[in-house]
Amino acid sequence: MMKTQLQQITNANKEQFVNLFNYYLYELSAYSQEEIGTEGTFEMEDISPYYKDDRLHPYFIKVNEKIVGFILVTSPPYVAEDVDYSVQELFVLPKYRGTNIAKDAVMQIFKLFSGRYDVGMFKSNAKAVKFWTKLISSLDLPVVVEEGFTKIQGNVMPTLGMKFTVSC
């Protein structure tokens, strides 16, 4: 039996976070079209605010004491005006996908933080779109879907945003 747990990401475990974040960027590059940098890794923006700013809520997703991914949640002023929280990033290592770990982690976040949510993703990321669509509909939440785009390294990428309210 796999029990999903959340562990806050702090300055003490930032190295694990940075390393795992690069795997995430590698996987996301299929949708973002980003190139690796001269060091052979993806060039990251400074992610240290995640473990330094109390208005950001970063968690490792753990199963049986092993880190299997992360979930990064933002709150004002890092979200749109009509939003309380945003799941900015959600990543589970491929070995652990299809086991409800991501769903369990998101449900734990919803219990911790009730309010108006916004979740964005690349429109071409069919797995993410399917995951969020299935999860939100299983909770029977009304959702507003918005299409948009983002620009990454000169490429314009179509995005999909979902807005909904969680009250647990």
**Amino-to-carboxy terminus distance:** 25 Å
Average of the residue pLDDT scores:
93
Strand order in the sheet with the most strands: 1-2-3-4-5-7-6
Structural class: alpha+beta
Radius of gyration: 16 Å
Secondary structure: number of strands: 7
Low-confidence stretches: none
Account of the protein in words:
With 168 residues, this protein is α+β, with helices and mostly antiparallel strands. Helix content is 29%, strand content 35%. A seven-stranded mixed β-sheet has the order 1-2-3-4-5-7-6, with helices on both faces. Strand 2 (56-63) and strand 3 form a beta hairpin. The protein is globular. The mean pLDDT is 93.
Give structural attributes.
168 residues, 7-stranded mixed beta sheet, 35% strand, 7 strands
Short description:
The protein is α+β, with helices and mostly antiparallel strands and 168 residues long. It has 4 helices and 7 strands; from the N terminus they run βααβββαβαββ.
Topology diagram in text:
Elements: E1 4-8, H1 14-32, H2 49-52, E2 56-63, E3 66-74, E4 85-92, H3 101-112, E5 115-122, H4 126-138, E6 144-152, E7 155-166
Parallel strand pairs: 4-5
Antiparallel strand pairs: 1-2, 2-3, 3-4, 5-7, 6-7
